[in-house]
Amino acid sequence: MNVRRSAAALAAVAVLAAAAPATAAGPSPSPKVAIPSGLYGTSDPTYDGVWRQSLTLVAQRTLGYRPAPKAVDWLAGQQCADGAFAAFRATPAKACDSKVAVDTNSTAGAAQALKAAGGHDTAVGKAVAWLKSVQNKDGGWGYYPGGASDTNSTSVVIGALAAVGTDPADVRTSGKSPYDLLAAMALSCDRDGGALAFQPDKKGRKAANADASAAGVLGALGKGFVVQAGKAPAHAACTEAAHPTPARIADNAGAYLAATVAKSGHLQSTLPGAKDQPDFGNTADTVVALAADGRTEQAKASYAWLEKNASPWAVQSGPAAYAQLILAAHAVGAQPGDFGGTSLVRSLNELGPAPSMDSSAQAAKKSEDSEKSGSGLGVWWFVGVCLVAGIGVGFLLSGRKKRQP
């Protein structure tokens, strides 16, 4: 759920809090706009307000919390009349015009979050209708409507479609579905290990991209932000196919990711100037993707690496980072209340309006506290799983604008 910087969109998508690995020490710069009381986090929301709020609300629902009405209302209030969302609108009472840069990632992320929060079916329906209206002829979506399709944007839109119970295969333009776009981005086993490309470069060349591969695994599986460990893949290694099915696309990309993180447990940042620095955000996304593809052992190994190393990054990056780690914990069945000695739950909830715990989840947590089973997977966590079982949301992922490094 990373946002990469590109020359074409630097001003629009400069840095998403949970996206870019920390490349410099020190506090975040002071926000250029006032932070609304319902918004999570204290950093400038200009480029990631809707995205970080969406991830936060989904993570809270996954944990069995009911997000604060103020937080949900803030997100719903960011929507334009046509159903679309921009990254952030400082004056949401003002009607959207051509100067408001609405995008598919913010819209798809918000749709998933409002669906999870409940009570906003009209807003969710309008968001999904807008997404359908800007589908490209190749079956995919770009970050901005009309822009070239990319794996990440297409995958996060698939998550929104799944959230409302729509089969992505049935959403077509010019006879193409989102799965056709993912198939077009799938690379060979021999040269690229089954990875997915983000999008072709100006010369039409496609390069393996770990971030796009992680997002594409979820997209190909028809998943959104929240996943549980899936069945082991039919083929552990990458296998070629002239016309790969979505499941084959996911399994091949999963094989690529597993091989990429097998040695170190994590991905390396590809951002300019980030020499030999880990990519915490994309590693968290990779944990979710590996778990969804049934590669649970490698997913758990990478999650263990995050437990040892990612806390400083989360502190610096803010709510979206904590949400990503919570979703990674959920995917591997880990306890987010004890993340290397840190409570991801408390850390996230303290960054904005306090949520309330559903009565059933609260009772289950009390039961877990009293039984002291030491199993590492409490009853309250199971309740959280049940609460999101029908959401159909998933990573990445990527409510975000990316370019291949």
Q: Indicate the proportion of strand residues.
A: under 5%
SS class: mainly alpha
Radius of gyration, CA atoms, in whole angstroms: 19 Å
Fill in the CATH topology: Glycosyltransferase
Distance between the termini: 16 Å
The CATH architecture is Alpha/alpha barrel
The strands making up the biggest β-sheet line up spatially as 1-6
Shape: globular
**Helix tally?**
17
Biggest sheet character: 2 strands, antiparallel
Q: Compute the number of structural domains.
A: 1
- Taking pLDDT < 50 over at least 5 consecutive residues as the criterion, the unreliable ranges are 3-28, 367-405
Return the CATH class.
Answer: Mainly Alpha
**What average pLDDT do the residues reach?**
85
Q: Please count the beta strands (DSSP E, at least 2 residues each).
A: 6
Succession of helices and strands: HHEHEEHHHHHHHEEHHHHHEHH
Keywords: Membrane, Signal, Transmembrane, Transmembrane helix
Signal peptide: 1-24
InterPro entries: Terpenoid_cyclase/PrenylTrfase
Transmembrane segments: 379-397
Structure description:
With 405 residues, the protein is mostly helical. The chain has one domain (10-17, 40-366, 376-388): Glycosyltransferase. It has 17 helices and six strands. The chain is globular, with a radius of gyration of 19 Å. The chain crosses the membrane at residues 379-397.
Which secondary structure elements does this structure contain, and how are they paired or packed?
Layout lengths: L9 H4 L35 H14 L2 E2 L2 H9 L7 E2 L15 E2 H14 L3 H13 L17 H13 L14 H8 L3 H4 L17 H11 L25 H16 L5 E2 L9 E2 H13 L3 H14 L1 H7 L1 H14 L11 H6 L6 E2 L1 H13 L7 H10 L17
Antiparallel strand pairs: 1-6, 2-3, 4-5
Helix pairs in contact: 2-4, 2-14, 4-5, 4-6, 6-7, 6-9, 9-10, 9-11, 10-11, 11-12, 11-14, 12-14, 13-14, 16-17
Keywords: Membrane, Signal, Transmembrane, Transmembrane helix
